[in-house]
């Protein structure tokens, strides 16, 4: 498992503009809004010099039941790895949500999503 490195937290948001304003007020640098058809969501990457990176994920229809009246919810945790398949072999119980595919927000690097017992939804981002 030593190949996994924390990359970011994925945050599902109810109101994209409000979330951007709040994140910007914390001192984050905000990327351009990227719509990724493979994920059917608008995505914005937020970096900070001393806090974890965040990915704001906006799709009001898809996240309505997850948000349940909240403005945002942590949706996934992302780890970067040299090899997605090798990293997956370290997890005993996993369910594939989305097989590896290019991620527009990350310059078409391969990403894959999994539900892993004890962690929830995990995104693996190939280096």
Question: Proportion of β residues?
Answer: over 45%
List the helices and strands in order: EHEEEEHEHEEE
How many helices? The count is 3
- Please provide the count of β strands: 9
Determine the N-to-C terminus distance.
Answer: 15 Å
Structural class: alpha+beta
Question: How much helix, percentage-wise, in residues?
Answer: 10-25%
Mean pLDDT: 91
Which regions contain 5 or more consecutive residues with pLDDT less than 50?
none
CATH class: Alpha Beta
Write down the oligomeric state.
single chain
Tell me, what's the shape?
A: globular
What does this structure look like?
It is a single chain. The chain has 127 residues and is of the alpha+beta class. It has a single domain (5-126), classed as 2,3-Dihydroxybiphenyl 1,2-Dioxygenase, domain 1, CATH 3.10.180. It is 18% helix and 48% strand. The protein is built from three helices and nine strands; from the N terminus they run E-H-E-E-E-E-H-E-H-E-E-E. The protein has helices at 16-25, 60-67, 84-88, and strands spanning 5-13, 29-30, 34-36, 41-47, 54-58, 72-81, 94-103, 109-116, 120-126. Strands 1, 2, 3, 4, 5, 6, 7, 8 and 9 form a nine-stranded mixed beta sheet that branches. A hairpin with a 5-residue loop joins strand 7 and strand 8. The relative contact order is 0.23. The model has no long low-confidence stretch (mean pLDDT 91).
Question: Any descriptors?
Answer:
9 strands, 127 residues, nine-stranded mixed beta sheet
In terms of topology, how is this protein built?
Layout: E1 5-13, H1 16-25, E2 29-30, E3 34-36, E4 41-47, E5 54-58, H2 60-67, E6 72-81, H3 84-88, E7 94-103, E8 109-116, E9 120-126
């Amino acid at each position: 498992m030593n190949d996994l490195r924390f990359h970011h937290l994925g945050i599902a948001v109810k109101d994209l503009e409000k979330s951007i304003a709040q994140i910007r007020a914390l001192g984050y640098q905000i990327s351009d809004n990227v719509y990724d058809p493979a994920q059917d969501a608008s995505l914005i990457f937020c970096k900070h010099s001393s806090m974890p990176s965040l990915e704001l994920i906006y799709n009001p229809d898809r996240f309505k039941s997850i948000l349940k009246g909240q403005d945002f919810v942590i949706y996934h945790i992302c780890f970067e790895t040299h090899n997605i398949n090798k990293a997956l072999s370290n997890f005993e119980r996993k369910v594939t949500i989305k097989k590896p595919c290019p991620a527009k927000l990350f310059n078409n690097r391969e990403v894959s999503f999994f539900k892993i017992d004890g962690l929830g939804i995990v995104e693996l981002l190939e280096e």
